[in-house]
Design brief:
Layout: H1 2-21, H2 27-45, H3 47-59, H4 69-83, H5 85-89, H6 93-124, H7 128-159
Helix pairs in contact: 1-2, 1-7, 6-7
Length: about 170
């Protein structure tokens, strides 16, 4: 998952670089680049799992308070959605639809199945049903990222037919 996130950030960076070199608005693309680098670091370092374990042990949390990070993520997603309205308004319609589909799939796994899986874990431990929800969560995240990678590659192909790099 972290490699998919990092690959996505590279594609966002490529689009950012392309937009900037043609003196076009690139702020939303740069923000997306940084967001996906951050997500790759969080996923790759298991920071999320570490912080949950650390705070649950230090604060003796269990049940719903243990999963309050979901509310924080939902808040961050809502704020980013609001900030990105001007950027989204100027996107190619097909690009926008595919990005929204990929986001919906990713978020349904990252938040939706995470909630269900965590509730199952609280009641049943490392049961078969918990493992199924965990697998569904990770699968939806990867499918969402795969769709986004396809989408960004498609967008690059229609905007930048010739791609070249020069190292000096």
């Amino acid at each position: 998952s972290s490699i998919l996130l990092l690959s996505t950030s590279f594609l966002f960076f490529f689009i950012t670089f392309s937009k900037k070199s043609r003196n076009k608005h690139y702020g939303g693309w740069l923000g997306s680049t940084l967001l996906f680098i951050f997500l790759a670091l969080i996923k790759g370092t298991s920071f999320h799992e570490f912080s949950l374990t650390f705070f649950s042990e230090k604060l003796d949390l269990s049940g719903f308070p243990y999963f309050t990070w979901l509310l924080a993520y939902a808040l961050v997603i809502s704020i980013l959605g609001f900030i990105y309205i001007p950027f989204v308004k100027n996107l190619n319609q097909k690009l926008l639809y595919l990005m929204l589909i990929s986001a919906a799939i990713y978020i349904s796994g990252a938040i939706g199945f995470e909630i269900i899986g965590n509730n199952t874990f609280e009641t049943n431990g490392l049961s078969f049903s918990y493992r199924m929800f965990y697998t569904a969560e990770e699968t939806l995240e990867m499918i969402g990222l795969a769709i986004l990678i396809y989408t960004l590659n498609w967008y690059i192909s229609i905007k930048d037919r010739k791609v070249s790099f020069e190292l000096t």
